[in-house]
Specification:
Elements (H helix, E strand, L loop, with lengths): L3 H10 L6 E6 L3 E6 L6 E2 L3 H6 L14 H15 L2 H14 L10 E4 H19 L1
Antiparallel strand pairs: 1-2, 1-4, 2-3
């Protein structure tokens, strides 16, 4: 039996990921930049909409609504490239992380922070199920 943390570690560790810095400003503009010197590019909305359509008008943060749900899903999908993982955890990520960012302010999060959050959450599921 594969534990949840083992599944996430295996899926993530099988792929080589560069560090990515995600940032948001102006209430709905979100960009990502490969590090150390990648050009910032807009985080695409469409891939997350194909999984779940919460907010076709775009991303938002600072509360627990549809715009933050779409952003949480998009961040997890982009950071992991694993749709099943993104769908399983995005609502929790929305409430625990995205909703806490200042609604009219800016924020940044590293891909490694997102992966750390996922691993911690998966550990919690393993403890609760044992």
């Amino acid at each position: 039996m594969v534990t949840e943390i083992g599944r996430i570690d295996k899926e993530i560790d099988e792929k080589l990921y560069p560090e990515i810095l995600y940032s948001g400003a102006n209430g709905h503009d979100v960009v990502k930049a490969l590090q150390p010197d990648g050009e910032p590019k807009r985080l695409p909305l469409e891939p997350s909409l194909k999984l779940r359509n919460h907010s076709p008008t775009g991303f938002s943060w600072g509360y627990g609504g549809s715009g933050p749900a779409q952003l949480a899903l998009a961040l997890l999908l982009d950071a992991t490239t694993i749709p099943e993982t993104a769908l399983q955890y995005y609502q929790e990520f929305k409430f625990e992380v995205v909703a806490g960012w200042p609604g009219s302010g800016s924020w940044v999060i590293w891909r490694s922070e997102i992966i750390k959050w996922l691993r911690k959450r998966a550990e919690t599921i393993n403890i609760e199920s044992n």
